[in-house]
Design goal:
318 residues, alpha/beta, 5-stranded parallel beta sheet, 12 helices, 36% helix, 15% strand, binds nicotinamide-adenine-dinucleotide, binds (2R)-2-hydroxypentanedioic acid, D-isomer_2_OHA_DH_cat_dom, oxidoreductase, Phosphoglycerate dehydrogenase
């Protein structure tokens, strides 16, 4: 068996046991030598003879899958999102795709909360000012008493909801598969998407990127939001129309943005850069010691299970 492993954080010490397990199972394990997510051509150059592929945030397009060797049986996503894997093409080729749901939900929710607090108090700008020898006495807002609207109340959205309640926020959510029992237990309001967007002081996005969520936050949706609303996106670039969001920060409609995910990563040229109270992190929501270890061990278990012909509950395209 030959396995390709591309998430660079897989090689952190937290994954020593998962790495040893994979290397004991396989005849050969090839690691990502580029130190970043792979583009289509770069994947193909590394797929020769590969049976299992533990995949980071690589762009596994239909073209890659059509040209992939017949030996490839499983793509084991190291993480929750599968938007960068062309699922119909994988299914057509008989390649199973798995993911690691829930392994990084606390990590991402804590980053979303961090971004929300930093935007409420303008922390990055204050830090930069103090570094320059300035001493501004800024004024922010409290989260207490504010309304948080969560779009996508799955593993991450739910973790965020309970923490926001502890901060004294009113929490409402939109999710087509709304979990009524969870909402009742924690006092989360059930609203339509438009109601969430028009009534929230803070809006946090936790939906997968697909055809129904692409640009779900566009200029027309932003126009309906409360003046000064702050949007947090730790889900995927592409869910927000970045040009529309940048324009809305510039003209004062939005109070700020906290972003961990972007349409083009890394973020090089972007209308979002250089704006007041737009806070970036480099798609690092899942990168805590705990989540890296959780993603690594489940991704390894999944690839081994599929290649061993065992039942794997995390196959998304049965
Ligand atoms: N920044 C990061 O590093 C990072 C890490 C993990 C996940 N993510 C992203 O966050 C997303 C959510 O992760 P999760 O673990 O909470 O996934 P999840 O599957 O547990 O939850 C997603 C929720 O979104 C809901 N949903 C689907 N379509 C919707 C729509 N159109 N409108 C509203 N709700 C909708 C689903 O019903 C589900 O409850 C992932 O798909 C991934 O893209 C990012
Ligand atoms: O590879 C990672 O950094 C985690 C990916 C994360 O966005 C996810 O989809 O779970």
């Amino acid at each position: 068996m030959k396995i390709l492993v591309t998430p660079t954080s897989f090689l952190k010490p937290e994954n020593a046991a998962a790495k040893a397990k994979l290397e004991a199972f396989a005849d050969e394990v090839v690691y990502n030598d580029l130190g970043r997510p792979l583009q289509a051509e770069e994947i193909l150059e590394r797929l020769d003879g590969v049976d299992g592929y533990v995949a980071g945030l690589d762009y596994i397009t239909a073209d890659v899958l059509e040209k992939a060797p017949a030996s490839l049986k499983v793509i084991s996503r190291y993480g929750a999102g599968v938007d960068r894997v062309d699922m119909p093409a994988a299914t057509a080729k008989g390649i199973k795709v798995t993911n690691t749901p829930g392994t990084n939900s606390v990590a991402v929710c804590e980053l979303a909360f961090t971004l929300m607090l930093c935007a409420a108090r303008n922390v990055p700008k204050l830090h930069a000012a103090v570094e320059k020898g300035e001493w501004p006495r800024s004024q922010g807002v409290e989260l207490r008493g504010k309304t948080l609207g969560i779009v996508g109340m799955g593993a991450i959205g739910k973790n965020l909801a309970t923490r926001a309640k502890a901060f004294g926020m009113t929490v409402n959510a939109y999710d087509p598969y709304f979990d009524e029992a969870f909402a009742k237990e924690y006092g989360i309001g059930k609203l339509s998407l438009d109601e969430v967007l028009t009534t929230s002081d803070f809006i946090s996005l936790h939906v997968p990127l697909n055809d129904s969520t692409r640009h779900m936050i566009d200029a027309s949706k932003i126009a309906e939001m409360k003046d000064g609303a702050i949007i947090i996106n730790t889900a995927r670039g592409g869910i927000i129309d970045e040009q529309a969001a940048a324009d809305a920060v510039k003209n004062g409609k939005l109070g700020g943005l906290g972003l961990d995910a972007f349409e083009q990563e890394p973020l090089i040229d972007s209308p979002l850069k250089g704006l007041d109270n737009v806070i970036f992190t480099p798609h690092t929501g899942a990168h805590t010691a705990e989540a890296v270890s959780g993603m690594g061990s489940m991704a390894v278990d999944n690839v081994i299970a599929v290649l061993s012909g065992e039942d794997c509950p995390y196959v998304l395209n049965k």
